[in-house]
Write a structure and sequence with these properties.
Blueprint: H1 4-11, H2 29-37, E1 41-44, E2 50-54, H3 57-65, E3 69-70, H4 100-109, H5 114-118, H6 121-138, E4 142-143, H7 144-149, H8 151-161, H9 168-179, H10 185-208, H11 214-221, H12 233-261, H13 263-271, H14 276-287, E5 295-298, E6 302-304, E7 307-309, E8 314-317, H15 319-323, H16 363-380, E9 385-386, E10 408-410
Parallel strand pairs: 2-8
Antiparallel strand pairs: 1-2, 3-5, 4-10, 5-8, 6-7, 9-10
Helix pairs in contact: 6-8, 6-16, 8-12, 9-10, 9-12, 10-12, 12-14, 12-16, 14-16
Protoporphyrin IX containing FE (HEM) is lined by residues 71, 94, 105, 240, 243-244, 247-248, 251, 289-290, 293-294, 352-354, 358, 360-362, 365-366.
Length: 411
């Protein structure tokens, strides 16, 4: 069972995780090297602990669909991303295992169903148009992150949940500190506390004066002994707000850059807006923005990619490495290589949303947002271009979610 690959892995040094990208458009070279060598490899994380890293598309799907791995962060061997992440609080459905995870998750799935999110298309288009109008009125150069990529999904998730958008400075600052690994322990704790107080008072207000929104429905139908613990509601709302805007915002910024530096792909999308769904999948695959997750801990001995993972050992999967795996993408006759962008590619089997039972709850929403945003942006501002050279773009370094700090554009 234990093979040559595992012997190599046991003796090789364990480089630091997360590794840096040497080119902002490519996977970190170390992950590519690991993937091409095959098997699992050991990495060292911030607290000095060592865990397995899976980099092949096939191995990642095997890890994420295997009942032998647990997502429960209360396990002392779980590879945490940083010392004071909210995960420490545990108990939320996303950090639980099935069947408890599935029982709680299904209380949220209707809110993010294909039907519900497709029904938002018109209102998302209206938000997109409003933001484009404001950018045009302002005149370039503008920061596309602040003026478009961030407010679009923020306004959408606020509408769904019933969170006042006027409070965006607070929740965006909180979400950003939660993902930026350069932020100090103390500062992150301070912002978490401030955000918790905000969500606590919001939940209290919704309890007293319910509205036609997701928080009010959750409080009415799914809080209590058979649902979410009432004291966890502010944490749950905070996670949904954060995951609901920060991720898509980064995708919108990065996807716009990818289209600007690949004008043939931009023109193709503008001339064929029916390619928007495949373009969104390809962007998700190409960028694979979730840089440090998913992570799991083995609850029993299990073999992955020829490597024995023992009970209690932690494992991290590299979504970017898996999504750039030439065995899974670009292997067919005439297909575009995995490291290149092809908006017409059939990329739906990517793992950018994870895989298995914890696969992204908000994926339908994120998809519609991207499908609406890019075609409209380039239809209305065909001359959109970068206002600074590509090599000066401030890509995020050391962040849980990859993205751009700002994106200066003009037209
Ligand atoms: C492009 C945008 C997005 C990307 C790339 C993304 C990525 C991911 C990934 C990789 C996971 C799996 C984590 C794991 O297995 O441990 C995940 C889970 C999750 N995502 Fe997203 N996400 C996006 C948008 C959203 C949105 C809009 C929401 C809305 C609320 C959301 C809410 C969640 C939740 C609640 C989970 C946990 C699901 C569970 O454990 O059952 N995400 N996401």
């Amino acid at each position: 069972m234990t093979t040559t690959a595992s012997e190599t892995a046991a003796t090789e040094e364990a480089p630091f995780f997360p590794a840096e990208r040497s080119c902002p458009f490519s996977a970190p070279p170390k992950y590519t090297e690991f993937r091409e060598a095959g098997g699992l490899h050991k990495v060292t994380i911030w607290d000095g602990s060592r865990h397995w890293l899976a980099t092949r598309h096939e191995d990642i799907r095997a890890v994420l669909s295997s009942p032998s791995f647990s997502a429960d962060v209360r396990n002392p061997d779980f590879p945490l991303v940083h010392s004071n992440q909210p995960e420490h609080e545990g108990g939320l459905f996303l950090r639980l295992d099935d069947p408890e995870h599935a029982r709680l998750r299904q209380m949220l799935t209707r809110e993010f169903s294909v039907k519900r999110t497709q029904a938002m298309r018109e209102s998302l288009l209206a938000i997109t148009d409003e933001l484009i109008d404001a950018m045009l009125a302002k005149g370039g150069p503008v920061d596309l992150v602040q003026d478009f990529a961030l407010p679009m999904p923020s306004r959408a998730i606020c509408t769904i949940l019933g969170v006042p958008y006027e409070d965006h400075d607070l929740f965006q600052e909180h979400a950003n500190a939660g993902t930026d690994l350069n932020v100090s322990h103390e500062e992150r704790a301070r912002l978490q506390h401030k955000a918790f107080e905000y969500y606590e008072s919001l939940v209290r207000r919704k309890r007293e004066e319910p509205g036609d929104d997701m928080i009010s429905r959750l409080l009415a139908d799914h809080t209590g002994p058979d649902g979410f613990a009432p004291e966890m509601m502010p944490v749950l709302v905070g996670i949904l707000v954060g995951a609901g805007h920060e991720t898509t915002a980064n995708m919108l910024g990065l996807g716009t850059v990818a289209l600007l530096v690949n004008p043939d792909q931009r023109d193709r999308l503008r001339d064929h807006p029916e390619l928007a769904p495949s373009a969104a999948e390809e962007m998700l695959r190409y960028w694979s923005i979730v840089s440090t997750d998913p992570r799991r801990v083995a609850s029993e001995d299990v073999e992955i990619g020829g490597q024995l993972v023992r009970k209690g050992e932690g494992i991290i999967v590299s979504l970017i490495a898996g999504n750039r795996d030439g065995r899974a993408f670009g292997a067919g006759e005439g297909e575009c290589p995995a490291d290149e962008l092809d908006i017409a590619r059939s990329a739906r089997h990517h793992v950018a949303f994870g895989f298995g039972s914890h696969q992204c709850l908000g994926q339908n929403l994120a998809r519609v947002e991207m499908q609406v945003a890019w075609p409209r942006l380039f239809e209305r501002i065909p001359g959109l271009r970068l206002a600074i050279p590509t090599d000066e773009l401030p890509f995020k370094k050391n962040s849980i979610v990859y993205g751009l700090r700002s994106l200066p554009v003009e037209w």
